[in-house]
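Example record used in the benchmark description.
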Amino acid sequence: MLFDPRPKSNRSELFGRDRELELLHANVDVPLIIITGVRRVGKTSLLSVFLNEVSVPNVMIDLRDLRTNYGLRDLYGLISKAFSSRLEKLYEVLRSISGIRVEGFEVEIKWRGRGSLTLSSLFDALNRRRIIVAFDEAQKLRGPRSQEFLNALAHAYDYDRNVTFILTGSEAGLLYGFLGIDKQSSPLYGRYYYDLRLERFDKNTSLEFLRTGFKELGIRIENEVLEIAVEEFDGIPGWLTFFGNEYFRGNKDIARVKELAINIALEELQNIVKERGRRYALVLKGIAEGITTWSGLRRYLEEKEGTTISSSILYNVVRNLEDMSIIRNYQFLDPVYREAALRI
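Model output (structure tokens):
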């Protein structure tokens, strides 16, 4: 069902992404694939459908819940969970790896002490057969163990020819910065990768998506309503799905649906402010109110805070928000987040 809010798992549920799926199939033998796009554009769904279609054994590690200052225990816990979910296809290779124990339907990885398994050793062991290892929201790997992961990934890139890595990221700047493929200091410097940037739907595709979704549900809906929904949610599949699902459940007031979406986005922005500081809130609000220049934003902050703002500090805030794929060139990439920023 198109309006199912959960990530899609087969092609029939994934609307308008045949081209992207074929590109992934055509590049399946590239050692490193990177998929980026704004929040709710459908990266996880695209990846899930591809992994279900491809004949190569695979595993996807969901990193969304990885805490900022994660340790090996945290990371290996998520890897164990992912292996457990694919145990039927990976049982033979996993049971032969020293440091991994299969108990019933659960996989345990020894992460500390004698006989523990390093990431490099894990990737080397998986190399015994063809496999795809995907990390969803891979920018979350930044942190105290980032160098260890990058070293292991670079080693596997060079020596583990049977392993393809796929990394997705909603915060594209943070992901590219973390990998550092264009930085001489990075272990991955100069490595080739296939870069797939997932774009939002255009207007016609958005309208067809909504028409198809409502037809599946047996609901007739005025074209004018669809036009308004497309305008409000700007072709982002996740928000269009959210609208379709709410409408199906009886919430037919687009303004109310948008209000619910804004509250979801507001919570995400508030988490960013909580983690990074109140100044981020002021920058977001200033840009949401229409400030489109660095000098104008600096004056706005100085007026709000009653103090001078150093150029380097403001530059870093703006750059970080761009790296998180929230803004670009003093414009919000998602209109829902702009509305949310006005309330922050």
